[in-house]
Write a structure and sequence with these properties.
mainly alpha
């Protein structure tokens, strides 16, 4: 297959049928999309308690986040690639079950080593389910509709970062951190049940790819040759590094350096998530009215403003609480305009093998985040300097990727509106 053959494969359903499917699937897709925030944000308030209870260091606790993200990346490669060959439904269901079993392992882990291993398994299952679910959405939507629904899912899914840290903070105040993971087990059971009941098969046999690993390798090479796809992928990855620097270290910064209680930190964390959710709803409403590239630019500007304020607060003001919180807020507001638009732009260039493209999008993002998280949290409760440095690198890389995609020009026309 040559690049000249690479054209969007359009859904065969009518617009009315597609809309009905989207409405029926949205709640389940949101649940699947909530796996990462629930699995990373819910136990963040318990980081100090976990380090004490397991007799380990902040850096080792940071590796539990890294293990989950590495698992997410590997799981997305497996789930995405397999979904191109066997359909979307089976990888989603199997991944959801494995994710739930991983959460059980986390709740029972007697040592930091076994906890890290269980987090890897949890990430593998969650990643497989998410990649296949993302490909399912690409099967059913096109053009601006894809960007609109992806950002709408993120907006509704923004409830997860609001609920998760508050629930985690309450648990950390009255019970062991293990109860947090039992909560994730319950979430996994709900997610698996919803996927079994609500998700149809979106990839008919005649559109599936044959050839096993060899075909996956061929498709991967073709996707990697699509420069616009790579540009938007890297934009997402660098932005994700800045976001995960916040996720992995904000607990230490706001509690250890800022003096907030676990519940106080959870409320700040949830407030930032509320801002992110509100901006995601705004972004979804603006799709079709404002070019996605312009919204990405606005998001990058908000993010850069927040990181600049954090830099001043950490390096010049001794990590003052108020400017630090405001910097985090601007960072979260900016991210809402980046991820949904950039992901939709990237996937529009590789619709014919959406599973492979979705896998690559998730894999590279997870690997970058898995590196960013321990680097950012390496200062623990004593220094926020590593966190800010990771954020600065993420912001600079995002801007470079943005300008690279601009030089590459416009992508392929999409039938439900132009992505540009």
């Amino acid at each position: 297959m040559s690049l000249s053959d690479w054209r969007p494969a359009l859904p065969k359903s009518s617009p009315r049928r597609s809309a009905a499917i989207t409405t029926g699937l949205i709640a389940t897709l949101v649940l699947l999309n909530a796996v990462p925030p629930f699995s990373t944000d819910m136990y963040a308030p318990s980081f100090p308690q976990m380090a004490t209870g397991l007799g380990t260091t902040a850096a080792m606790i940071g590796l539990t986040l890294t293990a989950f993200l590495v698992g997410m990346g590997l799981g997305q490669v497996t789930g995405g690639a397999v979904s191109d060959q066997v359909g979307r439904r089976r990888p989603i269901l199997i991944g959801a079950v494995v994710c739930t079993l991983g959460a059980v392992g986390c709740a029972l882990a007697p040592s930091i080593g076994l906890l890290i291993a269980a987090r890897l398994v949890q990430g593998l299952g969650g990643g497989a389910a998410i990649a296949a679910a993302r490909a399912l959405l690409v099967d059913l939507t096109v053009g601006d509709q894809l960007a609109k629904i992806m950002t709408l899912m993120m907006a509704i899914g923004g409830l997860a970062p609001m609920i998760a840290p508050v629930a985690g903070g309450v648990i950390a105040s009255v019970a062991s951190w293990r109860v947090v993971f039992w909560g994730l087990v319950a979430f996994g059971l709900i997610m698996t049940t919803a996927a079994f009941i609500r998700l149809p098969e979106s990839l008919p046999p005649e559109r599936r790819q044959a050839g096993g690993l060899r075909r996956f390798g061929t498709d991967l090479v073709i996707v990697l040759r699509l420069k616009p796809f790579l540009g938007y992928l890297m934009l997402n990855c660098f932005s994700g590094a800045a976001l995960f620097a916040y996720i992995s270290d904000s607990s230490y910064v706001l509690q250890g350096l800022g003096g907030l209680s676990p519940l106080g930190f959870s409320l700040v964390f949830a407030g930032n998530a509320l801002v992110n959710m509100s901006m995601s709803f705004l972004n979804s409403w603006l799709v079709g009215r404002v070019r996605p590239r312009q919204m990405i630019r606005n998001g990058l500007m908000l993010t850069a403003s927040g990181i600049a304020l954090l830099t001043v607060s950490v390096f010049a003001l001794g990590t003052a609480l108020l400017p630090t919180c405001l910097g985090f807020l601007l960072l979260l507001a900016g991210q809402a305009f980046i991820f949904g638009n950039a992901a939709a732009m990237a996937l529009s260039f590789a619709r014919q093998t959406a599973g492979t493209a979705s896998a690559l999008l998730g894999l590279i993002g997870s690997l970058v985040n898995s590196i960013a998280a321990p680097l950012a949290s390496s200062g623990g409760e004593t220094s926020a300097h590593p966190m800010v440095m990771v954020m600065l690198v993420g912001s600079a890389g995002s801007w470079l990727a943005y300008y690279w995609t601009h030089r590459l020009g416009r992508g392929p026309a999409e039938p439900s509106g132009q992505l540009e």
